[in-house]
Amino acid sequence: MKIYTRTGDKGQTSLIGGRVDKDSLRVEAYGTMDELNSFVGKAMTELNPEIFTDILEDLEAIQNELFDGGGDLANVMKERHYKLSEEPIEVLEQRIDLLMEEAPPLERFILPGGSPAAATLHIARTIARRAERQTVTLMKAEEEVPAIVQRYLNRLSDYLFVAARIANARVNVPDNEYVRSAKVFRTGKSESKSED
């Protein structure tokens, strides 16, 4: 089997049920999900499995869910059967709540960084936000886009924010606070969100 087909040499690519230009909104959205998946994979290589077994299990599931969501965005068939469901969103919410109990108190905005894994998870978080923005743009422009993908990406970015904080906390690396920030969060366990 050859890895190259030459079918994309004129700037188009295949979807599930059609072809579009490679710079279409749909390809941008699911391509960014692929980029996000790559950074999730990179973060996994930076997490010690003896300390982060639970996070690694989460990220492995997330990689499969991102593949499902990307496939759902690439589906333009008349009869569409989507793979991503509400269950992964519910699981992410449960995991966020559990990890928030472990996270150190947060009073100020934090800057991405700390341990290598935390820095990579913050990169993944920002890519998740970009994928979400692109999906919203696609939803405004196209006749049918599975809205669950946008909801999943919204929740995923929150999870990645919390996971990045845990990636620092468990190896005793403090979060890098934004020094010009006033105390914007309640004291005690963090109630912050990475965006919305």
Give the helices and strands, then pairings.
Layout: E1 12-15, E2 18-21, H1 25-46, H2 53-73, H3 87-102, E3 110-111, H4 116-141, H5 147-169, E4 176-177
Could you explain the architecture of this structure?
It contains five helices and four strands. The chain is mainly alpha-helical and 196 residues long. It has one domain: Cobalamin adenosyltransferase-like (Hypothetical Protein Ta1238, Chain: A, Up-down Bundle). The strands form two sheets. The chain has a two-stranded antiparallel ribbon. A two-stranded antiparallel ribbon has the order 3-4. Strand 1 and strand 2 form a beta hairpin. The termini are far apart. It is an enzyme of class 2 (transferase). Belongs to the Cob(I)alamin adenosyltransferase family. GO terms for molecular function: ATP binding; corrinoid adenosyltransferase activity. It comes from Sporosarcina limicola. Pathway: Cofactor biosynthesis; adenosylcobalamin biosynthesis; adenosylcobalamin from cob(II)yrinate a,c-diamide: step 2/7.
Task: Provide key terms for this protein.
ATP binding, Hypothetical Protein Ta1238, Chain: A, two-stranded antiparallel ribbon, Corrinoid adenosyltransferase
Q: What global shape is seen?
A: elongated
**Which CATH class is shown?**
Mainly Alpha
Record field, number of beta strands: 4
> In what range is the share of β-strand residues?
5-15%
Task: Return the average pLDDT rounded to an integer.
Answer: 87
CATH superfamily: Cobalamin adenosyltransferase-like
